[in-house]
Amino acid sequence: MPFDTALAPERILADAWAEIGPAALIDHIIRRYHDVHRAQFPEAIALARRIETVHQDHPRCPRGLADHLAIMADHLMSHQGREEAVLFPMMLAGGHPKIRHPIGRMEDEHRDVDEQLVRLAVLTTDFTAPADACGTWRTLYRACRVISEDLCEHMRLENDILFPPFVEAG
Q: Which residue, 96, 90, 41, is CA-closest to 70?
C-alpha cells in the first residue's frame, strides 16, 4: 500500500500528541483555544455592534452578526466550562466507564458549532468585507475568520486526537 503523503502531517501530529499524552494536549487546548476564545469573542462582538450601528444603511451591513457572535460565545463558554469541569478531569483521571456519554455530547455540540460557522461565513460573505469597508469592518472580518479557523482546529484536535483513545477504551 503506498504511503499517503497528504495524511502524513496529521498522522505525525496525532502520533506526537499520543506520545506526549492527554494531559499535555488538554493543557494545550485550554491555553491555546479556551483562553483565546474567551478573549476573541468579546472583541469581535464589540466590533460587530459598532459596524452594525455605524454602517446600518450600507447594503452589505452584516446585520445580526453581533447577535450571532454573542450566541456562539454563550454556547461556547458553556461547552468549554463543561469540558473543564467534567470531561477533562475524567480524562486526566485515566477515563471512566461512562466517558462516552460526555464525549458524545461534546461531539454533538461540535456539530452545532459547525452549523454556527456556516452562518458566520454567510453573515460575513465568507469573511470578505466590501471594497468600501472601513478599517474596523475589515478588522472585524479578519477576527471572524480567525475565530472560525481556531474553532475548526480546536474541534479537530478534540474529535480526532483527544477523544478517540477514551472512546475506544471506554
A: 41
Any idea where the domains of the chain sit in the sequence?
21-169
Nearest to 35 by CA among 70, 93, 69, 83: 83
| Average pLDDT estimate for 15-29 | 85
Residue found by looking up cell 479557523 in the block: 149
pTM: 0.89
Task: Identify the CA nearest to 120 among candidates 160, 149, 148.
Answer: 148
Q: Which residue has the cell 452549523?
A: 115
Q: Which residues neighbour 39 within 8 Å (Cβ) at sequence distance 6 or greater?
A: none
Whether the CB-CB separation of 90 and 103 falls below 8 Å is answered with no
Q: DSSP character for 129? A: -
With beta carbons less than 8 A apart as the criterion, state whether 120 and 68 touch.
Answer: yes
Interval 60-103: pLDDT, tens? 999 999 999 999 999 999 999 999 999 999 999 998 889 999 99
Helix (H, G, I), strand (E, B) or coil at 60: coil
Cell 461556547 found at: 76
